[in-house]
Amino acid sequence: MEDREMTIPRALVRRPSPRLPEGLVTHIDRSPVDLDLAVRQWEGYAAALQDAGWTTVEVEPAEDCPDSVFVEDTVVVYGSVAVLANPGAPERRPEVAGTAEVLEEHGYTLVEIEAPGTLDGGDVLKHGGTVWVGVGGRTDVEGASQLRAHLEPLGADVRTVPQTRVLHLKSAVTALPDGTVVGHEPLVQDPSVWGERFLAVPEESGAHVVLLGGDRVLMAADAPRSARRFRERGLEVVEVDISEFEKLEGCVTCLSVRLRSLPG
Ligand SMILES: CN(C)C(=N)NCCC[C@H](N)C(=O)O
């Protein structure tokens, strides 16, 4: 693999299904989703990635899968290995094939989480060589241990974290570029897992950041106080409105999979 290829920043995204409004809700009450607005918000999200220098790669849309826009849940990418998820919600399992296809075309080595283990990509937070896996919701102990078996030979330090208060681990916490783990405390099961590196943020959506490279982060527009704190820490914050996806327990992380080392 050439160095140039190692550094092309690309991100998988998947256009919303016309059935998006039927997407799953688990921890919140259902409210109507405006499909046209959702499509515009998705386009705005993809444009924000592109403006930040990312080439977006579209996974073939899965029209019959309401939650398929949340492409993050279908895979965990580590270097040139793609660990295909076995989503904890059976209705989401057909989403995985489309992600597998595009990653195979791009030269990734595919491995998979096999039943009876379950694992959703949204339960996996990576930073540096550490991989935290939220267990207790969509991801079970067996799924987490299969992930460990795939990633530890690659040098990852895989740690499990209890996770039941929200849908996914990354609904509760994500990491800033310097490795600070941000979370809205009422939703974080055990902040002591992260010790000194944990930073409480005042809004639920303030806990969700996508790292765009350097000091730039992408986050939802409905967490202005958290955004201000990040700016005070020297970060450049890009905000996008994703209200329609939040109605389905989605957040900014769920809508893409960043491929820093995509070969070819
Ligand atoms: C970090 N998060 C939250 C995610 N990666 N995924 C959100 C999936 C939402 C979907 N309605 C579902 O219930 O599966």
TrEMBL record:
InterPro entries: DDAH-like, TonB_box_CS. Pfam families: ADI (PF02274). Transmembrane segments: none annotated. Keywords: Hydrolase. SUPFAM superfamilies: Pentein (SSF55909). PANTHER family: DIMETHYLARGININASE (PTHR12737:SF9), DIMETHYLARGININE DIMETHYLAMINOHYDROLASE (PTHR12737). NCBIfam families: DiMthArgaseDdahStm. Belongs to the DDAH family. This is N(G),N(G)-dimethylarginine dimethylaminohydrolase. It comes from Ornithinimicrobium pekingense.
